[in-house]
Amino acid sequence: MKARLASLLVPLALLWGCQEEAAQGTATAASLSEAPDYTEHYVLSPQVSDDRRLQEPGQKTRDAKGGLELLAANMEAQAVQIGDVELTIHETKLLHYTPDYSLIDFYHAYTHEQEFELVKLFVEIHNSSNEAVSFAPAALLETGAGEVKTWEDDVYLESLNEGLEPGEVKSGNVGFIVEDGAQEIKLTTSKLFAADGELLAPARALTIQLD
User: Fold this and answer.
1) What are the tens digits of pLDDT across the range 84-104?
2) Cα(211)–Cα(209) distance, rounded to whole angstroms?
3) What is the pTM of this model?
């Protein structure tokens, strides 16, 4: 009798456990924000988890590429004009990232830590001129603690530093691993050059506060 009772209780325990996991999963999904409209056509990065629904500090998400937590953010769009190129920074985030083990080799080129903090900006660049130009939205990034990163440290590798054709619009992420966090960052764009190398406009710098 006891053996029969035990055999009945085991499936029930498994069922309750599955229901509890499903409820927790639903609660986690419900606690996330809607992805903003400006990311609608964004093609997901092959090496960084999707953070589009992380809009408020404390929110977390996990996918096949790893786990992310939003530590601080500035979700107010900022626009700056560099000659005929308009750069819009739609959002700036400080994320804690634990990449999946399958990505460890990729990140060893940037850090030997298995989890780290990442400053990430979603940007849009528009060349309103009738000529091809060369421009990088984030040539240099400096944190309030004095840590400096260059465009070569970008982990997203989304080709936003390549040339812009006449009238072309590009959008996507740039992101940099930082050691000491970042409550304030100073972003410096590249200079704007014509296709033949002629200087069209100087670099611009702006400071972004994270809350």
Assistant:
1) 999 999 999 999 999 999 999
2) 7
3) 0.84
- Find out whether 59 and 32 touch, Cβ atoms under 8 Å: yes
Residue 98 DSSP SS3: strand
Half-sphere exposure of 65 (CA within 13 A, CB side): 13
- What 3-state class would DSSP assign to 90? strand
DSSP string for 139-197: SEEEETT--EEEGGG-SS--STTS-B-TT-EEEEEEEEEESS--SEEEEEPPPEEETTS
Closest by CA position to 206, among listed 118, 120, 94, 89: 89
- Reported in sequence order, the residue ranges of 31-159 that DSSP labels E, i.e. its strands, are 60-63, 66-74, 78-82, 85-99, 116-127, 133-134, 140-143, 148-150
Query: Is the separation of the CB atoms in 113 and 96 below 8 Å?
Result: no
Sign of CA dihedral 185, 82, 192, 133: positive
User: Which pLDDT tens digit goes with each residue over 161-179?
Assistant: 989 999 999 999 999 999 9
